[in-house]
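Batch 3, record 17
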Amino acid sequence: MNKATVTEIRKQFEKALEEVRDTAALEALKHGYLGRKGIIAGLFARIREVPPESRKETGELLNSLKTDLSAAIDARSMQFAVPRKQKEITDFSMPGYAMHHGSRHPLTQAVDDMLNIFQHLGFDIAYGPEVEIDWYNFESLNFPPDHPARDMQDTFYTEGGGVLRTHTSPVQTRYMSTHKPPVRIVAPGRVFRNEAISARSYCLFHQIEGLYIDEGITFADLKGTIELFCRLYYGKDVRIKFRGSYFPFTEPSAEIDVSCFLCGGKGCPVCKQSGWLEIMGCGMVDPNVLKAVNYDSERYSGYAFGLGIERMLMMRLGINDIRILFENDVEFLKQF
Amino acid sequence: MIVSIDWLRDYIDIDIPLEELADKLTISGAECTLKYSGVRIPEGVRVGKVLETRPHSDAEKLTVCKVDAGTGEILNIVCGAPNVKEGRRVPVALVGTKLAPDFELKEVRLRGELSQGMICAEDELGLGNDHSGIMLLPDDYEIGRAFADYYPVYPVLDVEVTANRPDLMSHWGVARMISVITGKPFKKIPLVLEEKGKDIHGITRVSIEDPLACPRYSARIVTNVRVQPSPAWLQRRLEAVGLRPVNNVVDAANYVLMETGHPLHTFDLNRLAGPEIRVRFARKGEKFETLDHKERILSENVLLICDAKTPVALAGLMGGLESEVDENTRNILIESAYFTPSVIRKASKEQQLSTDASKRFERGADPNERLEYARDRLAALIAELAGGEIARGLIDFYPEPIPAKRATLELENVRRITGIELSAANCRATLQALGFEILNANDKRLEVRIPTFRPDVEREIDLVEEVAVNHMDKIPSMQRMSISVPASFDAFHPFLTGIRQFFTGYGMHETVNNSLIGESAAAAGIWGYPPLKILNPLSQEMNVLRTDMIQPLLGSLRINALRKRGDIRLYELANVIEKDPSAETGAREHHNLGVLCSSSLWGLNWNEPEKSADYFYLKGILEHFMEDRGFVYKLRENTQNAAFEILCDILVRKELIGRIGQYRDEIFEKLQLQHPVVIMELQVEKLFEWYKPQKQYTPPPAYPSIFRDMSLVMDKKTPANVLINEILQQGGKYLIDCLLYDLYIDDKKLGEDKKALSFRLEFRSDKKTLKDSQIDDVMSKLFKRLENQYGARLR
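Prediction for the assembled complex:
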């Protein structure tokens, strides 16, 4: 056995490999050369015939032969694994392989977009439960028992004395109960209202609550923050209007209107010709709320705001039946 | 609440444009829209006289008329109405009139005849539905005059009153707000009260059983009235604010209500037994018929106004049929009372009866100034309108007068809360205009007496709002923002966002499902949680909270299947609720991920046959998901749920954190799905607790791998994971991966109880290039082991 033998075997192998047309033939070839009783094994067995002084060299020669053959077989097997369809590939106009396309729900996208802005403005995200107790949902927020303000929100009551939260505002007092000021949070979540389901209202919707309490926080801070948010979310040309309102847990309270993003304020069906769209409620946190969580209302002040996602989204997308958001028709979902 | 501008002018001068007024009121917290009560006749419609008529020569039903509409020329008008008559006065729309936003009247030829206008029917002017003929007007209508002059419209403000402002439900309340805005003084109509004849105490008496529920009851009597329709001015004012005129007494009471905001009631004195008034709570089950002809069954929560024998009114809600004032009424008892808000609210809720009176009482009426003024004003008005005599004196049960509260406003606190500096004079003027009495004032603070018609104002912060709300638009917008450094930064939301992106990337659609489902659906929940019930559900299909993510997703599947959507791949992140009586809220919430697919593995392709996405599709995604987040997990078959073909518990750190499975096809037979329904639910909140995002980097391999394939025939019952684990454990230190890449079953070739599995083993060292000889050894040892342990043989 010498170098020439090895070269000859290599040549034979290469020729045989060339003729292989399928995996089975390749396996057979592999078995023939690299199997336990294959040609290479036979060569190794004959290494004793080689003079001792050149055994090392021959050994290395055989090893490299084996490695090369093994690599060549692997490479060839790759070609069989993905059979190429030469004909089709010449037609570039054949469609690409169909892929499944996923989508994000427009509601959670909107929530993410808004949270993203507030996080840039230094707000942390906080959470609260959907099943609440009366104290957090109402009483700590300055809704006395038997007060007409409770009628503003039709409430679902649950067994065991709970309520389904009617707004994300209970996260305010929950958070403050366990955190010392300053607090600066936004709280996204589902809220529930016991209202008959119709094109205009659903039994649940999503809100984002905001809260900032520290020393020296004024309504001017609230205005600056909300204006910046609106410009980042609705575009830099948006105009904003604050008008007085009433919420039990803020004093003074205001509603915020933005100029209609569709008509820019000229009046159109989306804004019912008014040029303005109501987007959120806000105000300075009522001292009674601060008292409920043992904050010193003489030292600390702050603002809170709450915005509803569905209404805003419906206006933006031109949806006139809220139920489509919760039906999850794939033909609706895949548009987003 | 509708207030009329014309009426408001009785109490305040209004000299700014009405649109501006509405805007300013809105900014100040009284959200309102300017509207017009009545019909607005289009400009260009005039009173005309039909001078002569002749039939149209070319159209049977048309008449050609000569009409004088005061334009200086005689108009030729073709009219199709059957009732057009020579000599009659009619409404004529001249050429150029806009009868509708997109319809402007033009001069036309109708079958050859010139028509220079239109004689109008009722419906064409928005005055009614009659289209049987044109309107024929009285002969005293002036030719050429704008027809609109005969149909006056009243500008009104439609005010949305917030729950805290009972005082705003009146013309007085709105007038006071206007006073703050314009600086014009608010003025009341001076009272002229002429008492005559008998003293009231000689006629009737009043007794109150429960002064806590009825702290004040005040009455006057007017005798010898003549009940008849109200004068036109009164009827018009009531109609403008949406009230239907009844008779002069009832209308007068409504008028004073709308004026002052204080609810009043008038009784026919002769129909009161005694005559006397007793105020008491109802007895349980007591019956009473109210003015709306409803017989009501009462509870002890309902306060009653009674005469000597029977109830005559539900206090603060509605009167009874028996004591109603009608055309035969001669003598009137006027009730002006103050009821405790919570009492009226309870009764209103219980009786599901919300009236003009109850809306004000439950928010808080004024026990003092307004109560007194309204009582006397009504007596005077009835005397004026119905010609009666006001009895001498008044009955006034008011054992414990409700005092006006006081509060002090520090100007510094206005700045501290609002960010604007307001002068003492400015605050003082605002508060005075709103009816607050200034007790003490200097340039730093104001001490005020709060009028009792403002029950919403008690504290200093409420005064801050009063002075600030009118300057909403002047509060500066802070241009440099301070941010307090947060104590922590939330990582949960980004974690969830990552999950959303992951599943969206796999071609799934994110959904948002209802949290409320039916009890039977909840019972099928894959966790077996007891469901939390809603005590006042919208329907039986929504009477509990969902106990898993899967049942609502099945609902979405159904909707899509019924609409024949082919590939359905859905996921959702939301809370599932487990009833837990030991929890503060009665519930434990789990933030979970739900996935549901009934879909092809990939879309219809020209290069591959279509396949269904089955359990292993979802398992593959799960494997990627877990690996991506660095979690090691185990699956454990769960045979407890008969609805599933296959169901597995997903365990991380030996804790159950999810389930994955494939439903039995029979369950969905009716939906005619093309693909099996596979689901997965993960408790992502729990995963998040264990999640460690910082992964240490591993250097990429410096030496090549050696691959060895191995096909083994073994018992069908031997689970794949057992074999893989064995291989990984026994494969020596260089084995880094074992991939199961083929399953082959052939009962004839392999035997009925056999299967063949193919594995690709990857060997690698991080120190050197491995030699085949090193691996050969390992492979033969490994194979021997598998042969001995599992009876495997090489294929």
